[in-house]
Specification:
Blueprint (H helix, E strand, L loop, with lengths): L4 E5 L15 E5 L7 H14 L7 E3 L20 E3 L10 H4 L5 E3 L22 E3 L20 E3 L20 E3 L20 E3 L20 E3 L20 E3 L4 H7 L9 H11 L11 H8 L2 E2 L8 E2 L4 E9 L3 E9 L8 H5 L4 H10 L1
Parallel strand pairs: 2-3, 3-4, 4-5, 5-6, 6-7, 7-8, 8-9, 9-10, 10-11
Antiparallel strand pairs: 1-2, 12-13, 14-15
Length: 362
């Protein structure tokens, strides 16, 4: 009657969240069957008649057609992993909060702000919660009481803010809030001492608080597709950071747009010749506006070049290694494209940290 699977497996979910995988996890697998809630309820009732529900650790009900969860799930009092993703659920019933779950995957449903039970905060075992791809516009307050959480996925919702009490989730290692409508990051986010990965991509962030630098164990920081024009210089103190994504931000876009170099004007070329050849001039020789123009000369950053530039210059992008793992753009102003040299020759003994400051404050 059913193509479901009931047995033992070491890989019991297609979720992108980690799952407790003991040496033998007994799994009820009813995923990808397009079953409605009533049909699944009947199957669970039949299973409970044939054997003890206490033997089930993992239940996979993802990719079905449930509008609500069958109450029979409440009979599986040893359930540790529950995957109910990719259904049409609008809420999570109260009995789910009373199960000893360590992992709950409810992504890609229709759950809104009123869809979580108030008792959810009483969970004493939950480590992994994936509620990405739902209809949340506010962070459920009861989640802030689930202090056992280590992995929290809330991407692709409609969240407009991160609660200031986010620091209550003291055990968080991974926080995904990408694909929302966030415009601000609270200072308290920097108090999540155990955080190793933070995804804030595809939001509307224009800045980050310096407190981000307090995340000393942070390894991955996803910030692409935002409105960032600068980053706090304190970020250079994140010694564990090995992955930083900044693409599709004004911070990066401004460095790579409009890179064409037009030929210098006759005024520019003439003024360069005057300065390079040390031609003497005074108020009797030139109009005041030309004297002012000559006084605005900038020296090329290449120490091997004695050239100068005025209005016209070469804007050269050097992608400089930072922490040895990823690269950031550093803008160099040169009098000619022939003056491009290694950044260490240009900046002398400056450290990568100093270069980072130049870019971030740019």
């Amino acid at each position: 009657m059913f193509n479901g699977y009931y047995g033992s497996t070491s890989e019991s979910s297609d979720s992108d969240a980690p799952i407790d995988d003991g040496s033998s996890i007994k799994t009820m697998d009813l995923n990808y069957l397009l079953l409605d809630g009533d049909t699944i309820q009947k199957h669970l009732d039949e299973m409970c008649k044939r054997s003890r529900p206490d033997g089930i650790d993992t239940m996979l009900l993802n990719h079905n057609a449930m509008l609500s969860l069958p109450p029979a799930i409440n009979r599986f009092q040893h359930l540790r992993v529950l995957d109910i993703s990719n259904n049409r659920l609008t809420h999570v019933p109260d009995f789910v909060a009373r199960l000893p779950l360590t992992t709950l995957v409810a992504k890609n449903n229709l759950i809104d702000d009123d869809g979580f039970p108030k008792e959810f905060g009483c969970s004493a075992h939950l480590k992994v919660l994936n509620i990405s791809g739902n209809r949340l516009s506010h962070f459920p307050k009861q989640l802030l009481s689930v202090t056992t959480l280590e992995y929290l996925y809330m991407g692709s919702n409609n969240l407009v803010e991160i609660p200031k009490d986010i620091n209550k989730l003291i055990r968080l290692k991974f926080l995904c809030l990408g694909g929302n409508h966030l415009s601000d990051v609270p200072v308290t986010l920097g108090m999540l001492d155990n955080l190793k990965a933070l995804n804030l991509s595809d939001n509307s962030l224009e800045s980050l608080p310096p407190a981000i630098a307090n995340l000393k164990h942070l390894k991955s920081l996803m910030l692409h597709k935002n409105r960032l024009r600068t980053l706090p210089i304190e970020i250079i103190s994140l010694k564990c950071l090995t992955e930083l994504s900044l693409r599709d931000n004004p911070l990066v876009v401004r460095f790579v747009s409009d890179m064409t170099h037009n030929p210098p004007s006759l005024l520019e070329l003439s003024a360069r010749s005057v300065k390079i050849n040390n031609v003497q001039y005074g108020e009797r020789d030139l109009p005041y506006n030309l004297i002012e123009y000559l006084s605005s000369a900038h020296h090329c950053v290449n120490p091997k070049c004695k050239g100068v530039f005025f209005d016209d210059r070469v804007e050269h992008i050097k992608f400089v290694d930072f922490c040895g793992k990823y690269r950031i753009p550093l803008l160099q102003y040169l009098c000619s494209s022939k003056c491009i040299v290694n950044h260490r020759n240009i900046l002398g003994d400056s450290t990568d940290s100093n270069m980072m400051r130049k870019v971030l404050l740019g």
